[in-house]
Amino acid sequence: MWWLKDVMVIDPSQNISAPRDVLIKDKMVLEISASLTEEDVLVKAQGESVETVNGKGKYLFPGLIDVHTHLREPGQEDKEDILSGSRAAVRGGFTTILAMANTQPPIDNRALVEFVRRQGERAGYAHVLPIGTVTKGMQGSELVEMADMKAGGAAAFSDDGKNIQNAEMMRLALEYAKLTGFPIISHCEDKDLAGDGQMRRGVASGRMGLRGIPASAESVIVARDLILAEETGGKLHLAHISTADSVEMIRKAKARGVNVTAEVNPHHLIFTDEEIGITDTVLKVNPPLGSEEDREALIEGLRDGTIDMIATDHAPHTQAEKARPFAEAPFGIASLETALSAVWNYLVLPGRLSLDRVIEAWSWAPAQRFGLTGGTLKPGAIADIVLFDPDFSEVIDSTNLVSKARNTPFLGKNMAGFPVMVWVEGKLVQRDRVVK
Amino acid sequence: MKWQRKDILAIEDMSVEEIRHILHTAKVMKEILMRPIKKLPTLKGKSVVNLFYEASTRTRTSFEMAAKVLGADTTSIAVAQSSVSKGESLYDTAKTIQAMRADVVILRHPSSGSAKFLADILDPAVINAGDGQHAHPTQALLDIFTMQEHLGELEGKNVVIVGDVLHSRVARSNAWCLQKMGVNVTLAGPPTLVPAEMEGLGVNMTHDLDSALPGADIVMALRLQLERQKSGLFPSLREYSHLYGLTTERLKKTGKQSIVLHPGPMNRGVEISDDVANGVDALIERQVTNGVAIRMALIYLLIGGSGNVVA
Amino acid sequence: MEGTIKSKILDPDGIRRAVTRIAHEIVEKNKGTDKLVLVGIRRRGVPLAERIQQYIEEFEGVKVPLGILDITLYRDDLSTIDIHPVVHETDIPVSIEGKAVILIDDVLYTGRTARAALDATMDIGRPERIQLAVLVDRGHRELPIRADFVGKNLPTSRREIVAVRLKEVDGDEDVLLLERDDDINKS
Q1: Per the CB < 8 Å rule, is A326 touching B199?
Q2: What is the residue range of B251's domain?
Q3: Do chains A and B meet with 3 or more Cβ pairs nearer than 8 Å?
Q4: What residues form DSSP beta bridges with B185?
């Protein structure tokens, strides 16, 4: 049994944001109290040994749930695999991760769903839940066996980067997915508008002569999918929202009662296109970094609940792939191990977002939307828990990252504020940033 | 001035003093090119590698000649475009060149930023001979050099650059270079090829060429890539030529004896009428000589002394 | 000047006499002024050449053509010096084909500058002959080169510095012998 004493508990599911004592026993949260005496604890341990942690000055919150990660297995294990990705997850404070379907081959049938799930269980770190594709081979023409894939353990459906361009296919997917109760995750990108763009179309792209992706490449698909979700009554989740227009449209759709949720990536809350230098492939990401106006709108959207959740879009790539001229390097930022610290430093400490809102958007909100266990510290809930030390500092470098990837803009930076203890189902899997 | 730059990658980050120093050095080099014996011992034993991922006989030959006049040895590595994606990466090629102990690498590459990418990896000097749509500094310098020969001091002069500015590294480098020299620059072309994001260059923009011409000392026409029509960027050569083609009649609107420049090769009858093109032809010979002089100056400035020696 | 002055070798009058004599010798040795082209080596060779041109004009009544030679690009020590020398224009306004080119410099020392000037001259054209005139010859040749016209022969040690100052370039007018300061504080 674990006795976490005098720790600042942040649990938006119960509206707790106060110093508490927490007991973990038999893979579950046993109790949260204002304070416990040693006698109380010994009685509750029922003879089990008690490990005590003094949590003064630290935060305790439900393990984070990341609904958007690329674990690259099967097919691209040189970039990442389920073992390295789920180790990176718990190092970063994530106890449940959803694995995107765009592997090679894509996760478009039950056998592959079960493979990913099994690999996650074998790894034994974070809970790994597969997202299935929407269409076979992500070709955008035939739906996958959604009910069967649900039975195999899928958590949602998405064609990810190969956004469904055919509006009728998207409409059918929203209809058919009702059988599963799962949302269709839209990648929100119009292929023609995006073209072979490399970064957000704007003054910075014009100056550097890098081909631009207009903000409309996202917004027109957001508009389309909102209309389709409204018309079908289907369940829609919009991935990595990055433009002010998208935020405004989602706000209005929610007011009309459309069944939609949206996520935002930390890098879109932190960086803008003006920060990209012509060789900074580490900031090459899709959707591309937007303007300062977009960044402000995203923060506001997350504050007011228009944007429901934060997700990393952890996109690991090899160093060789990123060590190319800008146009030839792949899109993506590897972020599982740094995302929480980045949000803490760039958004919470400057007062742009409250820690309560961050934890809600990164645990309770995704748990509810995707019907997942976790995301709460209610007594009886599964003990997926993070102890966060705002003073723990670390230089992000190749020697301490456990992901296979190094494509993070924080490489070489000294940051403070990290998860220092992480439990998955009551088992301690990370302590002092070292994954067990 | 004391020259400290390791590479020539873009005009954007150069100082006016550096640009003037390059132009001064090029003037000396041009005198040498006019001699009966065009061979110097200056860079004896130095090696210059031409690494061209895009075909460009003109630019490559110009660099080769510049290096040879200065007495350096040159090697050309022409990489077929098709092998870029599947073959050796630029990173690997760079490592090979490093091992060959080249002193200067001249890079022409279809990706914006590739020159800086290479310069960051390599110890030898890198000269950008055109990277994607980003920059073509030697072209801009030779254009400025030619303009100065005709007009003297350029400060306060007016230059109109007309055409496919969006996709043009020549336009970008010229816009930076001219601005730094105190020239008023106007970019002209249809909204699809001179879009709002070009504001980042900090120069005037217009979609009405005729309104930009009065007072122009120099008009530079850019080459129109004919495949842009297929991408839907403009409806037809006929309409483009009607709105933006340089004709004798249209050039009268400048109200002066303006100079017309073109980075070549020209699409006669599209961005430039035949008779105007004939006038430009007369300048091309001079441009070629000036191009060699500018490139000699740059190679000399980069490796003429050994800037890396620490006492 | 990075040294201590030991003695003054020539004063303004001394320079004037030496240069005048050189001007006479050039005309005498070349049997007139017909084929002469004076070429000053940058920097101090240039005012010396101008003076010689003026003296010749005074006593022969002929203005001999005058050019300027920059030998930076012909130096053999470019890769051993740690700054990039600024190149200047070479300006020789007449053809030197079949002419008698007189290269003019202030000091002849190792002979490397003269060697570079010979190469540069021959890249410009094919003169009938090339001669070398210097204000001071201080010895210590590293190449088989000698001057045809010398204003002042001055035996020196390698530790010494010969400083020629001309009013057109330096404001002052003299030739000084200096002792190099000890380089204790230099790396």
Answers
A1: no
A2: 138-287
A3: yes
A4: B159
CATH class of residue range A2-60+380-435:
mainly beta
Contact: B309, C73; criterion CB under 8 Å: no
How far is B242 from A376, CA to CA, in rounded Å?
A: 68
Distance in angstroms between the alpha carbons of the first and the last residue of chain C: 18
Annotation marks residue A225 as catalytic: no
Residues B87 and B156 in one domain: no
Interface predicted TM-score (ipTM): 0.90
Catalytic residue among A160, A313, A384, A389: A313
- The pLDDT profile of chain A, 436 residues, written as one tens digit per residue, is 999 999 999 999 999 999 999 999 999 999 999 989 999 999 999 999 999 999 999 999 999 999 999 999 999 999 999 999 999 999 999 999 999 999 999 999 999 999 999 999 999 999 999 999 999 999 999 999 999 999 999 999 999 988 899 999 999 999 999 999 999 999 999 999 999 999 999 999 999 999 999 999 999 999 999 999 999 999 999 999 999 999 999 999 999 999 999 999 999 999 999 999 999 999 999 999 999 999 999 999 999 999 999 999 999 999 999 999 999 999 999 999 999 999 999 999 999 999 999 999 999 999 999 999 999 999 999 999 999 999 999 999 999 999 999 999 999 999 999 999 999 999 999 999 999 9
- Long-range contacts, stretch B245-248, CB < 8 angstroms, 24+ apart: B245/B269, B245/B270, B245/B271, B245/B272, B245/B273, B246/B162, B246/B219, B246/B221, B246/B271, B246/B272, B246/B273, B246/B276, B247/B273, B247/B275, B247/B276, B248/B273, B248/B275, B248/B276
User: At which residue do the structure tokens 């009966």 appear?
Assistant: B36
Architecture of domain A63-370: Alpha-Beta Barrel (3.20)
| B166 touches A at CB < 8 Å | yes
